[in-house]
Every structure is written in structure tokens, then in C-alpha cells.
Amino acid sequence: MNMNFNFDTNEVLLIIGAYGIIQVLAQDLGIKTGKKQRDLMQSMPVQIVLLFSGAYTIVNSYRDAAIATIIYYYLKYVYSNGETSAVCFEDV
To answer: The pTM is what?
Structure first.
């Protein structure tokens, strides 16, 4: 059985984006995350790649995914002065 694992950049981004969707769904279903997995996902470089890949999965454009990712971090660190909230919608 010969398995071909030649991936192009688009496929890698789609796979990482799909992982991000699975991660969020698993959390919503109450499935616990591994400690090392959590630590890895909380590192800034991995977060950027994951968010960019998630955006790319939706828009299928490197440029638009980059703009959306930049907007997210601009709003978080510049517009909000780095002040964060535990949840996005506190009244829910």
C-alpha cells in the first residue's frame, strides 16, 4: 500500500484550519484538551498559524486571511490596549 503524502500549502492550511474547527467543537462538547496540547495551542506562533489557517479555510485567499488575522490582533492589542476578557460575550 503506497500512501502519497505530498501536500501543497493550500492543503496544509486547510488541514490546520480544520483542526482549529475540531478543537473548538471538542471544547464545546466538553471533551477535555491534553495539557501539552493546550500549552502548544496557547503559544503565540501556533495561535497565529491556527487563526490564519482558519480564516484561509473560509475565504480561500492568503491576502484576505492575513488581513483578517491582522485585524484580530490589532483589535486585541492596539484597540483594546491589551486588556482582555475571559469570554467574548460576558452576558451570555
So the answer is: 0.82
The amino acid present at 22, given as its one-letter code, is I
Q: Which three cell numbers stand for residue 9?
A: 500549502
CB 76 within 8 A of CB 82: yes
Quote the longest CA-to-CA distance of the chain: 54
Q: Please give the grid coordinates belonging to residue 76.
A: 486585541
State pLDDT tens for residues 40-54. 999 999 999 999 999
Phi, psi (5° rounding) for residue 43?
-80, 140
Q: Tell me the residue type at 27.
A: Q
Q: Which of 14, 11, 5, 88 is nearest to 54 (CA)?
A: 14
Where along the chain do its domains lie?
A: 9-79
